[in-house]
Write a structure and sequence with these properties.
The complex is a heterodimer of chains A (about 290) and B (about 210). With about 290 residues, chain A is an all-alpha fold. Chain A has one domain: MetI-like (MetI-like fold). Chain A contains 11 helices and no strands. In chain B, β6, α5 and β7 form a beta-alpha-beta unit. Chain B is of the alpha/beta class. Chain B has a single domain, classed as Rossmann fold (3-Layer(aba) Sandwich), CATH 3.40.50.300. The longest helix of chain B has 18 residues. Chain B contains 7 helices and 8 strands, in the order βββαββαααβαβαβα. Classes of the chains: A mainly alpha (about 290), B alpha/beta (about 210). The interface between A and B is medium-sized, with 14 and 18 residues. The structure holds adenosine-5'-triphosphate and magnesium ion (MG). Magnesium ion binds next to α1 of chain B.
């Protein structure tokens, strides 16, 4: 059966034409990466105190001056949203990196011996059995809330998938002839981990880190929304959404709609980067 | 008078999860400077024995030991195995230079003898032919600390000219360094040509 190229043309082919897959993937990654970076940088330069309160224009609908409308104090919702998204990205980044560090550490320790492997396995099962949100809330509260509490809480609940992938991958590499040969040449476990394992694991680590981003962002927003996360003074999306609930009944739909939608888009963009990176770094697994 | 001897005493082995003895009560020894042939039918367990001798299998009955008059305390295994398929013995993300360095700092003169071209050192393992790769894996096994070489069908997939070249080199180096070689091959002619002594697996394996 021949592959009907015309029929299976990607819906985006009008955008990318006949570019090869690699170029296309790279293009998507850099475009999306650029958008995310632009948001993060822009939000850095928005000073919350400078988002002026102006009661003359309070609760105004989306317009050209205020694309996302204004809130009950007349503050521009667009600036507030961008600032919130920036905070989300920073928290997502910190949590992803921290959870990746935990995963690499645990993945590598599981190769040190049967007991280590057993310990890592039990820990995975333990953390899997606790609901994420619950653990994040508990950790966040016990660390006194704020950014560090949220980041640690999310990291502690999101190292599991990457740890599992790494553990399986390491097992496989360790049974390879070249690793056994390395031992025969007198190389230590540490040397082998550094020189044979780590370089082969980099793709998984990068993809695994990026894929935690969307989870981290969503969890931060929901925990904050519920009032267990960031303090009400932080310009976070979760705070904006919680506040806007009070004004939904009087018809100010834009207060929740635009920040919520933007958050969703950010999450999808990170997913897009993760998926495309996976395709790029590991073409054989892309179809799974 | 010999200086070192590799001895396998009463080896019995089955693969993990199987119920069939591949090797039973097998003993074999190899002295330094000795070139010993091992022949036997396909599937008889020659490669399995090679892996046991070189420490690639952890669980077997019996013992493998080295009687060595010069006690050396290096971490490098003095028994090095050379495989039939060299491509599996190279990290695919490493260039050839790095694969060599993992074992020892190879001298230019050895590289030259084996006909290794300078630019091969900067290639990935999948950019070399099977024969070229095999030369690398042989050189790598010739670490100065190596006392015994287990050569499991190492020239089976090479052309006649390369076979002769490799065996000539290997034998001369082994002689100089007093290395003992176990030659496993289906090629009776080759075994008779290079070996001082020939063992038949059927005779020593009591399955
Ligand atoms: N990893 C393994 N797991 C289970 N059985 C195995 C494994 N490797 C080899 N065997 C079996 O062990 C037996 C001996 O295999 P081995 O490769 O040692 O034979 P051989 O004498 O080297 O054969 P050949 O001359 O074809 O290379 C075979 O029956 C084979 O099917
Ligand atoms: Mg064999």
């Amino acid at each position: 059966m021949s592959f009907d190229k015309e029929r299976f043309k990607s819906p985006y082919s009008f955008l990318f034409g006949n570019m090869n897959l690699r170029t296309k993937t790279l293009l998507i990654i850099s475009l999306v990466g650029f958008v995310l970076l632009a948001i993060a940088i822009n939000s850095f330069f928005i000073n919350v105190d400078n988002i002026t309160t102006n009661f003359a224009i309070k609760n105004s609908q989306p317009s050209l001056q205020h694309p996302f409308g204004t809130d009950w104090m007349g503050r521009d919702m667009f600036s507030r949203t961008i600032k919130g998204l920036g905070l989300s990205i920073v928290i997502g980044g910190l949590a992803s990196i921290l959870s990746a560090i935990i995963a690499v550490f645990l993945g590598l320790s599981s190769t040190l011996g049967r007991y280590f492997d057993h310990a890592v396995n039990s820990m995975t099962d333990l953390f899997l059995s606790i609901p994420h949100i619950l653990l994040i809330i508990l950790v966040s509260i016990s660390l006194g809330g704020g950014i560090s509490g949220i980041v640690v809480g999310i990291s502690l609940t999101h190292w599991i998938p990457l740890t599992r992938v790494l553990r399986a991958e390491i097992k496989q590499i360790n049974t390879s002839t070249y690793v056994k040969l390395s031992k025969n040449f007198g190389r230590t476990k540490l040397w082998i981990a550094k020189n044979h394992l780590l370089p082969l694991l980099i793709p998984q680590i990068v993809v695994g880190t990026i894929l935690v981003f969307p989870h981290a962002i969503m969890h931060e927003a929901s925990v904050t929304f519920l009032g267990f996360g960031l303090s009400p003074h932080e310009p976070a999306i979760g705070i904006i959404l919680a506040e806007s609930m009070k004004y939904l009944s009087n018809g100010s739909w834009w207060l929740a709609f635009f920040p919520g939608l933007s958050l969703l888009i950010i999450v999808l963009l990170f997913d897009l980067i993760g998926d495309n990176l996976q395709k790029l770094l590991d073409p054989t697994q892309a179809n799974e | 008078m010999f200086m070192a001897e590799l001895k396998a005493n009463n080896i019995s082995f089955k693969y993990n999860g199987t119920n069939e003895w591949i090797l039973k009560d097998l003993s074999i020894s190899l002295k330094d400077s000795q070139v010993k042939g091992l022949i036997g039918e396909s599937g008889g367990g020659k490669s399995t024995l090679c892996k046991i001798l070189a420490g690639y299998e952890d669980y077997f009955e019996g013992e493998v030991k080295i009687d060595d008059l010069n006690t050396n305390s290096s971490k490098i295994n003095p028994v090095q195995l050379i495989f039939q398929h060299p491509e599996k013995t190279m990290n695919p993300k490493w260039k050839m230079k790095r694969s060599l360095d993992e074992s020892w700092e190879v001298s230019d003169d050895i590289l030259e003898k084996f006909g290794i071209k300078e630019n091969w050192l900067n290639r990935w393992s999948n950019e070399l032919s099977g024969g070229e790769l095999q030369k690398f894996s042989i050189i790598r096994a010739l670490n100065p600390k190596t006392k015994f070489l287990i050569a499991d069908e190492i020239t089976t997939m090479l052309d006649a000219v390369t076979q002769v070249q490799i065996w000539k080199l290997l034998l001369s180096i082994a002689k100089k360094r007093k290395i003992g070689i176990l030659v496993v091959s289906h090629d009776k002619e080759l075994v008779h040509e290079v070996c001082d002594e020939i063992a038949h697996l059927n005779d020593i394996n009591h399955v």
